Amino acid sequence: MTLPLSNDGFLRLVVRNADAAITFVQDALGARLVERFADANGRVVHSRLSLGSLAISLVDEVPDWGWHSPHSLGGSPVLIHLGFDSCDLVADHMVALGAEIVIAIEDRPYGKREGRLRDPFGHLWVLSQELPA
Question: For the whole model, what pTM was predicted?
C-alpha cells in the first residue's frame, strides 16, 4: 500500500552542537538554512536546510527525548548517499572543513566513482558520481 505524504519529508540528524553542524553542512555542501528554532535552553530543536531537492534537519542531542548523536552511540548506522558532478572536489572540501575519509573515493566496478566520509559530528556521507559509459 502506498500512502501519500501530507507534506514534504526531511532527514533529521542528531548531533552535538547543531549550530556548528549547520555551518559545516552550509560550508561543505552549499546547503541553505531555511529555518532554525531553539528552546529556552538554547538547544536547537529544529532546523531545516535545503540541499538541492533534499531537506535536512540538524538538531542538538537531547538524551531525555531519546535523541542521541553518533558520538553518544559510538558511531552512526546511517549512510547519507549524495550524488555530485565531482565527488572528489566535494570530498576535498569536506576534509578541509574537518571531515575524515573512511573509504577513499575511487572508481567502482558498478559504474560509479564514490567513497565515504565521516563528518566532524559522526555522520557518514557517501559521495558518488556517475562514471562516463
Answer: 0.91
